[in-house]
Amino acid sequence: CSGFPLSIFFIVINEFCERFSYYGMRAVLILYFKYFLHWDDNLATAIYHTFVALCYLTPLLGAIIADSWLGKFKTIVSLSIVYTIGQTILSVGSINDLSDHNRDGSPDNVALPIALSMIGLILIALGTGGIKPCVSAFGGDQFEDDQEDQRSTFFSLFYLSVNAGSLISTIVTPNLRAMECGIHTKQRCYPLAFGVPAILMAVSLIVFVAGSRMYKKVKPQGNVMLQVCKCIGFAIKNRFRHRSKEFPKREHWLDWASDKYDKRLIAQTKMALNVLFLYIPLPMFWALFDQQGSRWTLQATAMNGDFGVAIQPDQMQIVNPILIVIMVPVVNSLIYPLIKKCKINFTPLRKITVGMFLASMAFVAAALLQVQIDKTLPVFPAAGQTQIRLMNLGSVSATVQFQPQLQSVDVAPKKAVNYMIFKTSQLQSLNVTSGSLKETQSLEDLLEGKRYTFAFQVFGTAIDSNLIFDNVTSKPEEGKNLIRFVNSYVSTVDVILDDKAVAVLPPLTVSNYTTVPGGKRQHTINITTPLSSCTVSSKKFGFGSAYTISINDCTQGTLNITYFEDIPPSSVHMAWQIPQYFLLTCGEVVFSVTGLEFSYSQAPSNMKSVLQAGWLLSVAVGNIIVLIVAGASKLSKQWAEYVLFAALLFVVCIIFAIMATFYTYIDPNEIEAQFNKQEKEDKKDQDDHGKEAEADSKM
Question: Which keywords does the record carry (predicted)?
Fold first, then answer.
């Protein structure tokens, strides 16, 4: 088709579906750990990065299996089956009703979804990592040697399909997760968010197998990584055997392998090791980069996602691929030529250094943003403390005196005094006075570390009051809102929210909190009494808020209410994450693209798989670093952890810059040409000696 083998279209579609499956699943994974499995942020982050590290370790296994045993086609098919099974198990494990026999909305046996999830993730890591080094190489195998232009176009289409799959899935699966589904109780729809990627993976496998008869299948020819490892191993062993001073030293420690391996392989291994040595500091970059899907997504859960439409926290990850599409041509067509015109020698290693620095600055930006988020978070009482809020539901002002002589507060009508912190042991009682009226409330039975609301109103010749226990201990999760109702009306009311019954409230009683979605949506509040029915539309609650709504009275069918803010909505907008995403993406463009280009330019062609393995290994080690640093730091503030990572990468950036100054650029093609020339001369000498020997024998 237009000079292209038909088989490559099956491969491109296969890659699109596989990347959709992987990135779609990974986009919602951290929130699945946090909100479905109910793991804390640190455990969720640890398991997330363990999974990502495994995904980048298994390509080594996949490459060895493909090159030394099954071949690329059979490896892709067999591991894709494993991959599909893993996605299916993960989707099944996220079904809430699977073990919720008492139908209370939570799994009765939490070990079951955890076990299924871990089995599924291990199979996914084996599948996605195992086929990673095979699919693009298998696509390249479909072309003849004289089809370089078509092969180049194929790789462009291939990487376009990778980005398209990740981009679309990062939009789709968070929206699927945000839906509610379930048989007995409605929950976030993780089975659908994982099920659609599982279906796409099955489609990927079917499409790939459908093109089987069209593929050119190259037989396994051995894996160069194994040869390199054997060469290095023999050199070390041989050097150890000849460690005494009686043996002459050799120019390079790898030269000790010359007793068994040819000079060309040794020289090629030297070139590859020179590049791999520079890879040592690189994992620190990936340690920061891959936190987009963990810490940064968790950061977004405490932010305002109102962009005209409600944006899910896990959808903010889409900023990276969008910026990649924009920044790659801008950097290549504008920034680099401009730097060249300024006569600055912007070498590849300097670009990599700048990429590290930009990633470090991205985490400084994340830390500054986290400081602003922390300022908006509610403060809850510590051990030995109790918080009390005063809420005047009446139309007459009053004064509240905490005994013994702790504090005196004036409370205006229909107003509240926000939570005040007291030492629990000091609280005895409080007195409410309004004119000549007085009411006393005992506080001796209050619990430590809890919040209470003291609601009261002056009614006629008495002060009615109620000490309410506030059972909210944290900011509402996933941007949801909590609302409850307190009845300051003269009679019992039946409260209905969005056509669903909430509670029947006698005067001055309070309902339990009801969860409502975050965003701009307004809700219909309706009350009925023995004599009337009233309705009103609520305010827009935003994201992550909690409100107590006072039912005051009813005027000609319209309900009069007062809002009391228990927990303020998230006020820091998610758009403030864009600067840190921008810095990190700019760092990725000059780091990742340049790093691969530099690696391939500094090593012989047959060592590309070795360098690719080293590059993927650096990503895996970076994710392991996250586990170590986050686990060992024990920092209580998230902004401090961001600063720690930024500082570590900055130090590594300086170390890499120093290492880069000692690196000497080489031309592998020139070295290869010298070996080819030497081999031709050796062959010619052998032929000449052979002819001379033949002439001598005839004489």
Answer: Cell membrane, Glycoprotein, Membrane, Peptide transport, Protein transport, Symport, Transmembrane, Transmembrane helix, Transport
Neighbour tally for 75: CB within 10 Å: 25
pLDDT of residue 605: 67
For 1-222, CATH gives: 1.20.1250.20
Mean pLDDT value of segment 87-103: 85
Given a cut of 90, is residue 211 above it in pLDDT? no
Q: What are phi and psi of 324, to 5 degrees?
A: -60, -45
Residue 393 burial (CB count, 10 A): 28
Can you tell me the mean pLDDT for 616-634? 87
Q: How far apart are the C-alpha atoms of 200 and 525, rounded to whole Å?
A: 42
Q: Which two tokens stand for residue 392?
A: 């005047």
Does residue 604 have a cis bond before it (omega within 30 degrees)? no
Helix (H) or strand (E) holding 469: strand 462-470
Alpha helices in 32-143 (DSSP H): 41-65, 72-93, 111-141
What is the phi/psi pair of residue 84, to 5°? -65, -40
611 Cβ neighbours under 8 A, 6+ residues apart: 272, 275, 276, 599, 600, 603
Please state the rounded mean pLDDT for residues 540-564: 90
Helix axes 263-278, 668-698, angle to 10 degrees: 170
Q: Residue 379, exposed/middle/buried by CB under 10 A (0-12, 13-18, 19+)?
A: exposed
pLDDT digit string (tens) for 162-183?
A: 888 888 999 999 999 988 887 7
Q: How far apart are CA 252 and CA 270, in angstroms?
A: 9
This prediction's pTM = 0.85
Which is the CATH superfamily of the domain at 379-473? Type VI secretion system, lipoprotein SciN (2.60.40.4150)
Q: Count the neighbouring beta carbons within 10 Å of the beta carbon of residue 211.
A: 18
Alpha-carbon Rg for the chain in angstroms: 33
Neighbours of 181 (CB within 10 A): 16
Output the pLDDT for position 183.
Answer: 77
State the Cα–Cα distance between residues 79 and 72, nearest whole angstrom: 11
How many residues make up the chain in this entry? 699
Domain 282-376+578-668 CATH (choose: 1.10.40.30, 1.20.1250.20, 3.40.1620.10, 3.40.718.10):
1.20.1250.20
Share of the chain above pLDDT 90, in %: 42
Query: Distance between CA atoms of 219 and 66, rounded to whole angstroms?
Result: 9
Q: Which of 405, 419, 261, 291 is nearest to 359 (CA)?
A: 291
Residue 698: is its pLDDT beyond 60? no
Euclidean distance between CA atoms 55 and 696, whole angstroms: 64
CA distance 549 to 487: 9
User: What's the pLDDT band for 65 if we cut at 50, 70, 90?
Assistant: confident
Domain at 474-569, CATH class: mainly beta
Burial 286-300 (b: 16+ CB within 10 A, else e): bbbbbbbbbbbbbbb
Q: Which of 523, 621, 518, 22 is nearest to 302 (CA)?
A: 518
Residue 581: its pLDDT value, please?
95
Give the mean pLDDT of 577-582.
Answer: 96
- The ranges assigned to domains in the chain are 1-222, 231-259, 282-376+578-668, 379-473, 474-569
Closest CA to 315 of 174, 190, 162: 174
Mean pLDDT score across all residues of the chain? 86
Residues 6+ apart with CB under 8 A from 694: none
- pLDDT higher for 605 or 474? 474
In one letter, which amino acid is 516? V
Distances (CA, A) of 362 to 356, 365, 620: 10, 5, 21
Residue among 143, 416, 174 nearest 297 (CA) = 174
Tokens 């009103």: give the residue: 536
